């Protein structure tokens, strides 16, 4: 009996020690697993931070080769610059000037108002195939002017706008050059209202005044602000600029019009565009496109070449989409 009792005690003692070691092993295992998990989490967290820092350092605009002298890529929703190259430097605007002309005439004239083309509306520099005696609706002439960059159309819209303005003020004696002076003053006043701090306008179409003086000056940033103002307040004036070509009908006949933006069908999710080119200005182009769902971006390019303005914009679009994907 005594031997049996001693044997049982030994077995009990061995079992207790075994349980103890098992518990210790379990405890060590739990600690090891916990430490390993914390190590993995810490490593993953560090990797994520390193990846985030790496993303922050990536600049897809760094290595693109631009011909333009002034560039802005502007995020409309967040109202911030994504990229800038001499974005605040005033440069000749050429036909980007017509955007402001269209804005002002849209604020002063009814879209359905009729305009009869007369000799005085056909400027010496114009060659837009407008025919004396044809009658246009304001909206159609405005769309035609922006799509084809018609100098005659811009001149006609500006003149009619000031004639109506003077009629409203019972001042019907002003005509000719005085009307242009009034309209150009209105352009500069409106530019200040919009916030175009580096812009100055000397005519309604943007043609160079001579070999060393442009018809208007502004920065790439100012043109982005002007385009933003038009899109937010008068989106209808830019709608036609999304199309490669359109047919317009006056009271007397039809006009087939090609967009001066020859890359219009190469720009993804295009919202609007306007070209400009003179010998002094070089190639200008401002566009708005959706980089993503409801992510409108404006790209403004000044002082490029006639062909380079288009390739510059395509490069900037590609870089913008990539840059936004890591933000």
Automatic annotation (TrEMBL):
<keyword id="KW-0812">Transmembrane</keyword>
<dbReference type="InterPro" id="IPR012338">
    <property type="entry name" value="Beta-lactam/transpept-like"/>
</dbReference>
<dbReference type="GO" id="GO:0009252">
    <property type="term" value="P:peptidoglycan biosynthetic process"/>
</dbReference>
<feature type="transmembrane region" description="Helical">
    <location>
        <begin position="20"/>
        <end position="41"/>
    </location>
</feature>
<dbReference type="GO" id="GO:0071555">
    <property type="term" value="P:cell wall organization"/>
</dbReference>
<dbReference type="GO" id="GO:0008360">
    <property type="term" value="P:regulation of cell shape"/>
</dbReference>
<dbReference type="GO" id="GO:0006508">
    <property type="term" value="P:proteolysis"/>
</dbReference>
<comment type="similarity">
    <text>Belongs to the peptidase S11 family.</text>
</comment>
<feature type="active site" description="Proton acceptor">
    <location>
        <position position="98"/>
    </location>
</feature>
<keyword id="KW-0133">Cell shape</keyword>
<protein>
    <recommendedName>
        <fullName>Peptidase S11 D-alanyl-D-alanine carboxypeptidase A N-terminal domain-containing protein</fullName>
    </recommendedName>
</protein>
<dbReference type="InterPro" id="IPR001967">
    <property type="entry name" value="Peptidase_S11_N"/>
</dbReference>
<keyword id="KW-0378">Hydrolase</keyword>
<keyword id="KW-1133">Transmembrane helix</keyword>
<feature type="binding site">
    <location>
        <position position="274"/>
    </location>
    <ligand>
        <name>substrate</name>
    </ligand>
</feature>
<keyword id="KW-0961">Cell wall biogenesis/degradation</keyword>
<feature type="domain" description="Peptidase S11 D-alanyl-D-alanine carboxypeptidase A N-terminal">
    <location>
        <begin position="65"/>
        <end position="304"/>
    </location>
</feature>
<feature type="active site" description="Acyl-ester intermediate">
    <location>
        <position position="95"/>
    </location>
</feature>
<keyword id="KW-0472">Membrane</keyword>
<dbReference type="GO" id="GO:0009002">
    <property type="term" value="F:serine-type D-Ala-D-Ala carboxypeptidase activity"/>
</dbReference>
<dbReference type="Pfam" id="PF00768">
    <property type="entry name" value="Peptidase_S11"/>
</dbReference>
<feature type="active site">
    <location>
        <position position="149"/>
    </location>
</feature>
<dbReference type="InterPro" id="IPR018044">
    <property type="entry name" value="Peptidase_S11"/>
</dbReference>
<keyword id="KW-0573">Peptidoglycan synthesis</keyword>
<keyword id="KW-0732">Signal</keyword>
